[in-house]
């Protein structure tokens, strides 16, 4: 995992989960760049049958730190307390809900839209908090001598990719162009501005409130 390589010093900079930063806030954040959403994200969902309130078990991938802890916060704020269990098989048992993220979530939603309900965690976060949710950040190790130049290169790369977003969409082979256009333009955001920072601070506060992180002040050092 990139976060482990970053922690061991094998990487100077890496795009890792926002929860990794909150768990170990020694890194500098590349300002202005994130993977986030403000509203439905589409690719971070709980697949389930019936009502959310009736869910007894949710299968989790232990590697999904940010989305797993976002789910825990949202459930706790709703006063819901299902059990969390490890993933069992490749298919989702209808008696058990499952947290799905990334391409796996997209594929599952498109293939099973009539069989399951999908609780979009980005959408629920916006309803609860009315701030963007930050899933991933570029983090720079504190030992790096010139973090500003690295940050400038990453911001320039983000800007180039956004300017060429049509080419990025057309290069996608697995998913339909129309879906990719909506996903990259409407569901995902790639900025880390003041409202994203507020959203990340609120996530930190909720993780502390629900004992997912120790109670302490976290300073954001951005470059």
Write the layout of secondary structure elements.
Blueprint: H1 2-7, E1 13-17, H2 18-23, E2 28-37, E3 44-48, E4 57-60, H3 65-77, E5 83-86, E6 97-101, H4 102-111, E7 117-120, H5 121-129, E8 133-140, H6 147-163, H7 165-171, H8 177-187, H9 194-209
Parallel strand pairs: 4-5, 4-6
Antiparallel strand pairs: 1-8, 2-8, 3-6, 3-7
Describe the structure.
This protein has 2 domains: 114 residues, D-Maltodextrin-Binding Protein, domain 2 (3-Layer(aba) Sandwich), CATH 3.40.190; 86 residues, D-Maltodextrin-Binding Protein, domain 2 (3-Layer(aba) Sandwich). The two termini are 24 Å apart. Helices cover 43% and strands 20% of the residues. The relative contact order is 0.24. Helix 3 crosses helix 5 and helix 7 crosses helix 8. The protein contains 9 helices and 8 strands. The strands form 2 sheets. A 5-stranded mixed sheet has the order 5-4-6-3-7. Strands 1-8-2 form a 3-stranded antiparallel sheet. The longest helix has 17 residues. It is of the alpha/beta class and 223 residues long.
């Amino acid at each position: 995992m990139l976060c482990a390589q970053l922690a061991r010093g094998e990487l100077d900079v890496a795009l890792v989960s926002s929860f990794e930063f909150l768990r170990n806030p020694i890194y500098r954040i590349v300002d202005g760049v994130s993977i986030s959403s403000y509203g439905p994200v589409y690719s971070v969902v709980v697949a389930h049958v019936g009502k959310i309130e009736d869910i007894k078990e949710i299968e989790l991938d232990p590697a999904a730190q940010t989305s797993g802890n976002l789910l825990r916060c949202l459930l706790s704020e709703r006063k819901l307390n299902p059990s969390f269990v490890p993933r069992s098989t490749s298919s989702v048992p209808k008696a058990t809900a499952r947290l799905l993220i990334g391409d796996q979530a997209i594929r599952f939603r498109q293939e099973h839209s009539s069989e399951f309900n999908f609780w979009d965690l980005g959408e629920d976060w916006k309803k609860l908090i009315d701030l963007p949710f930050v899933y991933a950040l570029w983090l720079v190790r504190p030992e790096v001598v010139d973090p500003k130049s690295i940050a400038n290169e990453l911001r320039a790369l983000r800007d180039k990719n956004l300017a060429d977003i049509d080419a990025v969409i057309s290069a996608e082979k697995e998913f339909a162009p129309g879906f990719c256009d909506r996903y990259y333009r409407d569901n995902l955001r790639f900025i880390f501005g003041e409202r994203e920072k507020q959203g990340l601070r609120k996530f930190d506060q909720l993780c502390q409130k629900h004992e997912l992180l120790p109670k302490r002040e976290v300073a954001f050092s951005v470059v």
